[in-house]
Amino acid sequence: MDLFPNDDFSSQPLASTSRSLLPSSSAASFDFALDPSLSQQVASSSRLGPSYDDDSDGGDESVEEDSDDDDDDEDSDSDDETDAEEEYRLEMTQGGGAKRKKGGPVAGLTEMLQDKGKGKETAQEGTFAGFDDGEELGRLIHAIRDSSDTNVGGRTLLDKEFDRTIEEEMEGLDDPLNNGMPKKNKRRAYGPRPEPEPSTEVKDLLGRANRHYALGEGDQAIELLTEVVRIEPSLRVPWYTLASIYEEKGDTEKAVGFKMIAAHLMPVKRAAVEWASLGAQSRDIGLLQQAIYCFTQAIKGDKDDVDSMWDRAVLLKMSGSIGLATTAFTALLNIHPHDPGVLRELVPLLTTSNLYGKASQLYLSAFDHYRSICPHITAHTLPLISSFGPQDLETIADILNHLGMHARSIEILKRGVRWLQGREQETGWEMLDDDREFDLVRKTRVGWEREARFLEEAGVNELDVRLRLRLGVARMAKGDAEEAQRHFAIVLQEDVAEFPELFGAIGDSYYNRKMYDDALDVFQIMAECDDTNGASVWAKIGLCHLETDDADAARECFEAVAEAEPDNLKNKMHLAKCYEALQEHNKALLLINEVIATRRKQDAGKRKTGPRPMTKEARAARTADRLAAEQQRHQEFSLALITLKRLEPSVNSGDIEARAEWLEVATYLVDAFRETKELFPADSNKKFTGVQLQRSWKRKGVQEGDLELQADEMANRLERRMNEESEPLIEVDSYRGIHFDDWLELIMKYSILLTKNDEIVAGQETLVHVTAASVFRQSPQRMLAIHLARASCYAYTKNYVGLVEVARWIQRQYQYQTDGLRLLYAFLPGGSAAVEAFNNGPLQKFTIRQLRTIDAIVRGAPVKLAVNGSIVLMDEKQGAGADKEEEGEEGATTTGGTGRLEDKFLPKKASPAYNLGYGQMLMVSRSYASAIIYLLRAYDLAPKQPMINLTLGVAYLLRAMSRQTDNRAHQIAQALAFFSQYKALKGSCQEVEYNFGRAFHHLGLQSYAVKHYEACLSLAAVERQTHALSRMAVDDDAGAANADDELDEPDDYARLAAYNLSNLYMLSGSADLARAVARKWLAI
């Protein structure tokens, strides 16, 4: 997307061209902008004068070089020549004149000079096919003889013939994609006939004319010379004399014309220098097409005249002949492969023709070529790479980024800079996935000491700000936003007035990545600078506000743009969209009608090939067709749902084929649900009232820039909405004939089945995405179901971090209640991964905020409802948990709207559960002293709770065994006191005996530990025997009907106790006892 298509600063060059044969004061500037297709084509300067328009289509034009051979070589082609050609040569040899013949300016000349396709042109011979000089000369001679004007310098048929000659020269051009090679079957070119001996009359006239010229009597000399060229136009001398006279008179244009006639009378090879000089003179007086023609003739005579080839190519580019210029520069590139100067001119032409693939191929080939011939750049080897440098790397990066080859762009930029800086041997940087090679300060990245530490010891490598910008753009497009922002932050330190195109590209990159806030910050910087502030910047600011649903701010921006550019139709469309979002439908419709009327006025009298605005009848017919299509879609969805229900039994039984078919059908339904924009409005409180039937602006096959069709569709939508405003909106509880509860069940089943099918990311992404649907977001029950489904998938894949995230969401929705905290404990089983997820910094911060808010509410602090519907203290601005770590977190806003404070749960007393939970989190992070404080608070609130007593005993025990303890014996005594109270409350059971054994084991009191482990095993043996007898009794009493029913297995700590006990026996040297315990309790 081009951010600044019409701004002065948008086309500022990032890499200037290096070679131009034009004078410095009149050289054309073709700079390569950030987008390769935006090459700045500047018209010829005032010194060159007005340029000729090229009426031909540049895309269909082609250029060919003449393939003339020497005069001696022409005789070798006689075998394929016609009798007419033989007759022509005989007449020329005998000095006979040409006879007039119908159908051509000279008798039989056209037929005699037909090319037989003999001879092939090499790449060095250029791209333009030569004229038949004899035919040209014959045409010009008859133009002179048939002229009724005695003044040769007047606007006679001669001038018209010259113009026609140039036009025909430009028509016989080759395909621009043929590398400048000529087409087959071109006419062969022959040199002019020998200059005839002047007659006595002509000699007399020449002598008199020369005397008048010598005496300064130019007009008399012109009159006599006019008669000479009328009698014998094949003489060169009178033409040169006429040119000299007109040069002295200051009429350079006529002088050049006479010299061109004289040059046509000379052999092609001898006239090459003259033609080149004439080309330069024609260029200097602004006759670009004539200059191109002259340079072409010069190339015919000298196939190695690279300067003429370059001048001709530059002039073709200046004249707007893109196709011809492309072929001309391609021919030059064939002569000088990989030349940077030629590439800098050719590549913008290719990108203008949308040939990015060929442009990248040429530049990458040059890059590899120069690296191969000069692998190590030094002061002595620098000439080997010509002028290839950073500006060429910029162009390569622009092209690759345009083609979406962002990884390749990053690779070329980093390797190219390393090569140009003479650091090509520093390949160690390629081991890293980031761009720390070009950091301004070393040892600042997180974890630098673990990742290639030796590279961080290297010096700082410079990187041009333009190259850094491209590197950042490629990183952003690749999805590495953090790395891109590092580069952008450095670029943004530059002066925006000096590098406006870089700032615009950064804003564009953020905008395309949907990072609208960051894009807005960049565009605001540009708006604050007088040199870059303009309507297009405000338009971009308005687009950012529009994307962030700030329609008011967007309207202000677009209204300011409309003030500066009242004829900007695209801006009016954006402004109408703002009015529509603000429910100002009348204003929006007025603007849309204005756009439609303006476009129709602009198209008046022009041939219109695109779609035309629809009439009301056509709109009604289209709406009817779409209604019919909508009904058909309803039927398809209903049949698909029936198919899913039919396949469910087979899927539940494990049928793989049925599962694949079920997933295929469900994918079709779920994707259709997720792609419906009406189900995902920007305003989550907006009720779903059905699917709109109009098409989207950016649908496939319609260009965004087609304002006429966009305006038509928007007018249709506005008219429909204005008609609906008079009627109350009716909320719809189904989509495509399927109730939203059924949709929810389908989506949850689909995601869970994807997870079981090892498509974990797709399953989670589906569940996360549908939480943004308003029909689900407005229902707390549906949102809870979705998050519990997420928890199921996380539990299946043992993703404990995801389980913690779901538990936090539930705690936010059910504030200050203990259910979410209890679910957190239920979600996390034992194991190091679960403990690591529980030892989470954001989770600890969230829990302590909840705990402090509960304490404040219990003390009577006033509360209110925040904007997101959460309960906060009166002096707080955001909801609970709304810190920097949670601002962008999914689901941060409570479901079901804000509601009323009276309907919310408010704690009446302090919560022992939150104190216990936070204390346990501190224990896991080994902050035992702090943990004991919160655990004692929980003990004060619930002293008879066994879990609190057990946790306090463990906390004191762990603190006693740490190095920072000040009184180990006292803390051990406190720990055992809480353990004793825990045993008194819980009673004798496996859990108590195991925990006591584990405590003594931790203290190193092995005999006490063995005692409690053995007691745990004894209780386990009794409970297992009792459970077995109970199961037998159930089986006997219930019979076959309930044979499948099983009693719940008892809580069993036997294996844990047996494992620890066997270890103690082994450490004490009792291997037999350890073996016996293992065989009885640990064997499978």
From TrEMBL:
<feature type="repeat" description="TPR">
    <location>
        <begin position="535"/>
        <end position="568"/>
    </location>
</feature>
<dbReference type="Pfam" id="PF13181">
    <property type="entry name" value="TPR_8"/>
</dbReference>
<feature type="region of interest" description="Disordered">
    <location>
        <begin position="602"/>
        <end position="625"/>
    </location>
</feature>
<dbReference type="InterPro" id="IPR011990">
    <property type="entry name" value="TPR-like_helical_dom_sf"/>
</dbReference>
<feature type="compositionally biased region" description="Low complexity">
    <location>
        <begin position="14"/>
        <end position="25"/>
    </location>
</feature>
<protein>
    <recommendedName>
        <fullName>TPR-like protein</fullName>
    </recommendedName>
</protein>
<dbReference type="InterPro" id="IPR019734">
    <property type="entry name" value="TPR_rpt"/>
</dbReference>
<dbReference type="Pfam" id="PF13432">
    <property type="entry name" value="TPR_16"/>
</dbReference>
<keyword id="KW-0802">TPR repeat</keyword>
<dbReference type="GO" id="GO:0000127">
    <property type="term" value="C:transcription factor TFIIIC complex"/>
</dbReference>
<feature type="region of interest" description="Disordered">
    <location>
        <begin position="38"/>
        <end position="131"/>
    </location>
</feature>
<feature type="region of interest" description="Disordered">
    <location>
        <begin position="1"/>
        <end position="25"/>
    </location>
</feature>
<feature type="region of interest" description="Disordered">
    <location>
        <begin position="170"/>
        <end position="201"/>
    </location>
</feature>
<feature type="region of interest" description="Disordered">
    <location>
        <begin position="878"/>
        <end position="901"/>
    </location>
</feature>
<dbReference type="InterPro" id="IPR039340">
    <property type="entry name" value="Tfc4/TFIIIC-102/Sfc4"/>
</dbReference>
<feature type="compositionally biased region" description="Basic and acidic residues">
    <location>
        <begin position="113"/>
        <end position="123"/>
    </location>
</feature>
<dbReference type="GO" id="GO:0006383">
    <property type="term" value="P:transcription by RNA polymerase III"/>
</dbReference>
<feature type="compositionally biased region" description="Basic and acidic residues">
    <location>
        <begin position="614"/>
        <end position="625"/>
    </location>
</feature>
<feature type="compositionally biased region" description="Acidic residues">
    <location>
        <begin position="52"/>
        <end position="88"/>
    </location>
</feature>
<feature type="compositionally biased region" description="Polar residues">
    <location>
        <begin position="38"/>
        <end position="48"/>
    </location>
</feature>
